[in-house]
């Protein structure tokens, strides 16, 4: 039985790996521009122990009409929190949050507002 030196074994292993050539992989640091998802959605949102209904749809470039159902007239702050955080989660590019564009209005049992990603 013949003994092989560790160097010879490593050389054979290296040549074997070199024979399995991989296509060249080019890595760039450029990322595609983040895109806003511009499709209407309706989602149940669980917030502070209750489930509310969030509806939003695109109004224009990066702008959404939004409504939150199930909250009362005294829950403006909660409705804004649900709408803006949900917009960031469902529609905005990664890392962006929803930002309110005007004061919300309570009408017909819904908080209505406009928000954009940013």
What is the element string, with H for helices and E for strands? HEEEHEEE
Described by strand count, sense and barrel closure, the largest sheet is: 6 strands, antiparallel
N- to C-terminal separation? 72 Å
> Total helix count?
2
What does this structure look like?
This protein is of the alpha+beta class. It has a domain at 41-117. Helices cover 25% and strands 33% of the residues. Strand 1 (41-47) and strand 2 form a beta hairpin. The N and C termini lie far apart (72 Å).
Brief overview:
The protein is of the alpha+beta class and 118 residues long. It has a domain at 41-117. It contains 2 helices and 6 strands; from the N terminus they run H-E-E-E-H-E-E-E.
Please describe the topology of this protein.
Layout: H1 6-19, E1 41-47, E2 50-60, E3 63-69, H2 76-90, E4 98-100, E5 105-107, E6 110-117
Antiparallel strand pairs: 1-2, 2-3, 3-6, 4-6, 5-6
Quick tags:
33% strand; elongated; alpha+beta; single chain; six-stranded antiparallel sheet; 118 residues
